[in-house]
Amino acid sequence: MDSIFSQLNVALRGPTGTPQSPTETITRLSDRLAQATQIGDRRSTVLTLKGLSRDWKAEVGERALPGLVDVLLNDAELDEEIGKAVLDTLYVLCNVNEEAESGRGQLHTHIPPQVNKELGFKHTDALLADERVTHKLFALLAHQSFYLRLGVLELLLILLHNRRQVVQGYFLKAPVGATSVIAVLEEQRDRLRDEALIMFQTLVHQSPDIQKVLAFEGAFERLFGIVRAEGGLEGGHVVHDALACVDALLRFNSSNQSYFRETMLPPMLPALLLFPPSLKVSEEVPQAFALQFWDTPQKPANASLIVGIIGMLVNSKGGSVEETRTFSRCLVELGLASNAPTFLKTQALRLLPPNLGIPLPSIVVTPYMPVPGTNDEEWDRLEPASALDALVELVLHGEYNGLFGERRAKDGMELRAAALGVIQNFVQRDEIREAIVRAMLPADGSNTPPPTTPLLHALTAPPHSPLDIAAVTSTHLSCLLFAHLLRYAPRTKTLARSIIPQPNFPNTQPGGEFFVPADGGAPPPPPPAPEEEEEEPESLLQTLSEHLSLAFLSKNRADTSDQEAREWDRLIVGYLTLLIQWLYDDPGSVRDFLQTGGLGMLVEPINQMADSDPVIPGLCALLLGICYEFNREPGEITRATIHPILTRLGIDTLIGRITHLRNDDRFKAIGPDTLVLPYPNQASALPGVPGGGSAAAAAAGDVKKETEAEIWFDWAFVDFWKSNYYTVVKGVAVDPNEAPPTASTCLLQISMRCESYIIPGQNAETEMLVASLREVIQKQSDEIQDLKRRLNEFTASAAAVDVSLPPFSLLSLLSPCTCIHSTFLS
């Protein structure tokens, strides 16, 4: 070390003892580095340049970089000390992040951050101008020296950060690139292995070719070996980094996914979560999986990566039936019947595939409930139930039946929204919808009403003041859930009109009907027997109409606070969105709704001031327009009855109310995966919030509200509104006596609307597609008119000879146009 300082002193003072400027010193050192024939001289020169590079980065890079590259290529492999010195010097020259250098004890003080960044990129480009540098770095990874390999990994990480695509291109051409990277993953020394895992993630990022090369070199086996060696799920950040590498190799790479499935590794994924991979559908999940300790800070993060990989594989093509069933059940059990953190349950439910491979009703889960006051150390085992029942209860009542945690906590609302999405995917088929709704009807020929389902109970719960947040959320989500059963399902809507809900008595139990202790506890007391009444029982549609009217009246009371009015608004939105999707294109339901007096309560919200909340007036205007457009069956209130009301309100006003809804932030923010919105930052005064209205609640408001959230719409309704609002907007301006449009007219209007969204010259393929479809529509429309003409002629000729004709429908003739209609909508 003394000799190094002596050489540095000589370099700074010059041969005559006269002090030199840093530029002159660096120039002399650069010349010496280029001319030195002894490796010892080059070593001392590189060590001197390393010390100068911290404060004189630009000068060292400009004058000494070519010589440093030559040392790297020729001497680094032969001499460990010079190799480490040159790697450290190049690291300093190429680094653009001062914090990283300060962490290594290499902090330069007088270089501005922006200048330091520009110099780092400039030196990186100069260093990567020769592909031999990158090839040499990957070759040095196979060296036996600890410090040399560590320096290579650190420099590669800097180069990948600065110019990732260039380094990736050189890696694919490197003679020993893949083998050296795989070899360093087997390193037993923690520091090297940790750096290798970080560099690995950056190297394979967005490079399918490198992902394939490393996968076929055995990266999966090495990475899972690290996971096993570090203790599996209980391991620390090393396990997290290894699993992140596995995720990077598999995500968006179908080739690697297929190769991974051919190995013996896929069963390890559920096994790491303690879920038996060979568990049969009829067998119960072991308690070791359902009840685990999640106190380790890194364990939830590690589990999240495993769940993400399982979800990726189960939603991709190529998996076997057995693999899909195992992964799907693992996700179901984790989301519904475990004590995993709430965010992990949400992730598991969101990753369930639309087609589970095993029906939800056939999956039996055994939920657990934490015993109050035991700090989650004791759990009650509940009665087994189907996964579908557990999902419905989760949507309606929340995690653990809402007994723990904030009732509007963001994590809890996200979990309920995820469960709602699973049910939506499950009820896509019409026969499933009909079976669920039919279960709410009395059996054929029987006057005994069916037992009230949890969904129907929550849907028909009467609102009462003061509002309880849990009850509002339960009813609102039940509206969203029931709408999934009715949307675009005419036969299901017909069945739903026959539902006669039983009197809804308050549920004295804290949870729903599903959660019954399995330890022999007393069952909940039966509800009191309803008193005999002579009045005709109300249908579900009548009940919803009355509850909507009651909500409007309660909201408009003079003593209603702003916070409580917001909750009434949320409840009203739930009722309105359900009725809009129920009544659309269902004249029978429109007739029943109008006969219950639903028309009158829609007018007042539409008349509100233009600067008021646009959500409820917009929904009321849309529902009023639907009642007018689809009021096609005989009844007390006809289209001619409604038209004067529309005229008095103003057609332009109605259209403005409907279209203005899409400008509201609560509507615009909704996406396919975004239902839960942050709650406004204000202290709540509602009884449903613990401590609401007290000084303690106001003091804790700023902390609590950051984690609170709410739901207004779901994506299914937003998509429904965007697809159908135009039909309602056009319909409100039509004369009440005008006949409904024919199929051909509707199709031609649709084609004209499609053309109106095309900007000429910007999308030639779309223009050609619409033009060709328009021709097909016109051709088939002409064919329909010709068939009608021939039918009329045939009918007239048959009447002349007194021939009776059987009933005949044109629906079969309109089916080709229906196909074109579906094409346009898609």
UniProtKB/TrEMBL annotation:
Q: Just give the chief location class.
A: Golgi
User: Per its UniProt record, what Pfam families does this chain match?
Assistant: Uso1_p115_head (PF04869)
Which compartments is it annotated to reside in?
Golgi apparatus
Domain Vesicle tethering protein Uso1/P115-like head residues, every copy: 384-730
- Would the keyword Transport be found if you checked this record's keyword annotation? no
SUPFAM superfamilies, sorted: ARM repeat (SSF48371)
The lineage's top-level taxon is Eukaryota
Which region ranges are annotated with the description Disordered?
509-539
> Is Coiled coil among this UniProt entry's keywords?
yes
InterPro entries per the UniProt record, alphabetical = ARM-like, ARM-type_fold, Vesicle_P115, Vesicle_Uso1_P115_head
Q: Which residues form a coiled coil?
A: 770-797
**Keyword annotations for this protein?**
Coiled coil, Golgi apparatus
Q: What is the name of this protein?
A: Vesicle tethering protein Uso1/P115-like head domain-containing protein
Species annotation: Somion occarium
